[in-house]
Amino acid sequence: MFLRQIQTAAPIDKSINSAAVLGRLTIDLGAIAANHDVLSRQVGPECKLAGVVKANSYGIGMDKAAPVLFGRGSRRFFVATPEEALTLRRILPLAEIAVLGGGLPEAADEYIAHQIEPVLNSLHDIALWRDGARRSGKILPAIIHLDTGMNRLGLSESEAAMLIQDPALVRGLDVILVMSHFACADEKYHPLTQSQYERFSLFARHFPRAQKSLANSSGIFRHSDYHFDLVRPGMAIYGLNPTPETSNPMHPVVALDARILQTRTLKKGESIGYSATHIFTSPALTATVALGYADGFHRANGGKARLYWRGIPCPVVGRVSMDLVTVDLSHLKDSLPQPGDWLEVLGPHQSADQLAKSADTIGYEVLTNLGARYQRIYRDAV
Amino acid sequence: MFLRQIQTAAPIDKSINSAAVLGRLTIDLGAIAANHDVLSRQVGPECKLAGVVKANSYGIGMDKAAPVLFGRGSRRFFVATPEEALTLRRILPLAEIAVLGGGLPEAADEYIAHQIEPVLNSLHDIALWRDGARRSGKILPAIIHLDTGMNRLGLSESEAAMLIQDPALVRGLDVILVMSHFACADEKYHPLTQSQYERFSLFARHFPRAQKSLANSSGIFRHSDYHFDLVRPGMAIYGLNPTPETSNPMHPVVALDARILQTRTLKKGESIGYSATHIFTSPALTATVALGYADGFHRANGGKARLYWRGIPCPVVGRVSMDLVTVDLSHLKDSLPQPGDWLEVLGPHQSADQLAKSADTIGYEVLTNLGARYQRIYRDAV
């Protein structure tokens, strides 16, 4: 074999012919637009929707999702990192871009050059941004993040008190936005939510000219008091359920199908997959599907998740492999799926929120871990 | 804010200045070469090493890893999907490329055009590949995969018996390689391993002119009988431990560092992160780090994993967020890390195998889920 002569390969097309694709991710940009509208109605005309497009728009594709949100009227966008901010600036030259994860002082000059604003999470961040304003000879817009109980990012209570006492700390800056972030708004009643709201309100009233922003997706549905001037929906825009205690008010955005490579019959007593964790107690019919943890189908789904054939759940048996997963078809009566057929991973019968439960996680992690090997099909917003 | 005039942005450099990077993934290509050498010595000069580069070389980067393996002498490569095969053909015009996940019949003509071989997993696959040979007017090289107990892909026992009885089934094909795959070789003694070896040997002797391949990374270390002509190490090449019962004979390939965005002091009774799952029973000092489940730092690490500051473990407290994780620094005596400092996620104090335990998974999933937001630094093989 190693002596076989290999010719220089023929020119290679950009990708395989799509009929040979093994995983197909369909993203409905129309549903993203519709979700924007649902949320707009929920908050009313006085409140704007920011576009939260960090983590490649929760795995959906920032280059596709951000223009849809801009098209529906969003002007303020949030990303997590300096690099994401530059990527977004290329996509949306006219958007207002805020970076939750700072990157000061190193990113300051690039932020100024590209009209990007770091979210200022401390008095130190504020001082660094004032340095930038001084260097650039401009009054820079400033976004101040108050920590009201998340204890992750933002000004502490004592820093907030110092800032209120000494307005000189923001001299040279134009405080355009004051914000905080809910920790527990996904629970219908959590005492921390109201307490965060109260702390935020007390602080925010010291910045009468600034816009105020508190609510994430869930916060939007908890109380209209939480809306202020700007809400920051992420997961709800991408179709996850912001009100887990009841049915999902959002439109589903993502569908994922994976292809059967092979079916096989097993005898009673045979095992399947790595470590032979699953042993069949009666004869079985299984399908091996081109989907694995390298595609973001979490290994924790092993023995727990279901894929769907024409609406019928087919349980995952044995461990999830890197590129493959096996499902049990033994209960299917007629219309058995064949190699080449597609099984539903996400779609009308299984939402990302539902699949997440199999892996003991949340829909956010399902979306953000969607793999790179799928063919991505974007359905345009109408 | 929404009326603020935004200028058309200045031209945007390709990426943020590297000092503002928040996550840094360092990949040691020299360690990949060294691992190839370790495995070559283990199998001896009569046995070749295939390059297993599916799933973007286990998350490492196929475009970087595959040429290193080719440079150390590997000529036969395995990928999972038709799309990966075309990608690899662009990277290595002279490699022999096999596709584990088929894609027949749709991919057949592209395979033939680019001298790529599908691994034939059934008599049906064999028939489809013979069709391809007939269409192209060539005798095509064929790789036959026998299922010896994994029950995932490959010819079943009855199909194997039919093939042996009727050599006409491979007429028009040149069977160059016969292979199977271990299910439990990561366990030092598992009865299935020896039974798979025996089934494979019985089958393989019917193809005296074909090369034989059975062992994956762990199989290489279990018994020299398992080596045959070609071994297919994946995880060991990328630095994971193929012998979990003892110390790792491989060189570490991956290092990952994440940056502290902010530190904060918490009072007794305060909570941290989403759902306020962690409540401090005494005053604490924490660091918020730019690393989240969107970066492949699994949400299951919440409350369990550790990051390292100068070799000292700092436990993750509370939930892992999409872009952030919080660690407890309260136990650090002196030389406290500051915002901008790097914490070790993977490196000398924590291997991918070790981090995997925190999330109740395996090192493979840690590697294949490494996120897209890291700056990737490749150290060249010397």
UniProtKB/TrEMBL annotation, chains A, B:
Recorded metabolic or biological pathway in which this protein acts: Amino-acid biosynthesis; D-alanine biosynthesis; D-alanine from L-alanine: step 1/1
Modified residues (N6-(pyridoxal phosphate)lysine): K54
Active-site residue list: K54 (proton acceptor), Y274 (proton acceptor)
One CC-aspect GO term: cytosol
GO function terms (MF aspect): alanine racemase activity; pyridoxal phosphate binding
GO biological process assignments: D-alanine biosynthetic process
Binding annotation for substrate: R152, M322
Reaction equations catalysed: L-alanine = D-alanine
UniProt-listed InterPro entries: Ala_racemase, Ala_racemase/Decarboxylase_C, Ala_racemase_C, Ala_racemase_N, PLP-binding_barrel
SUPFAM superfamilies, per database record: Alanine racemase C-terminal domain-like (SSF50621), PLP-binding barrel (SSF51419)
Cofactors demanded by this protein: pyridoxal 5'-phosphate
Top EC class of this enzyme: isomerase
Keyword vocabulary terms for this entry: Isomerase, Pyridoxal phosphate
Keyword set includes Protein transport: no
Alphabetized Gene3D superfamilies for the sequence: Alanine racemase, Lyase, Ornithine Decarboxylase, Chain A, domain 1
EC number(s) on file: 5.1.1.1
Top-level lineage group: Bacteria
Domain Alanine racemase C-terminal: from-to ranges: 253-379
Family: Belongs to the alanine racemase family.
Function as written in the Swiss-Prot or TrEMBL entry: Catalyzes the interconversion of L-alanine and D-alanine. May also act on other amino acids.
Protein name: Alanine racemase
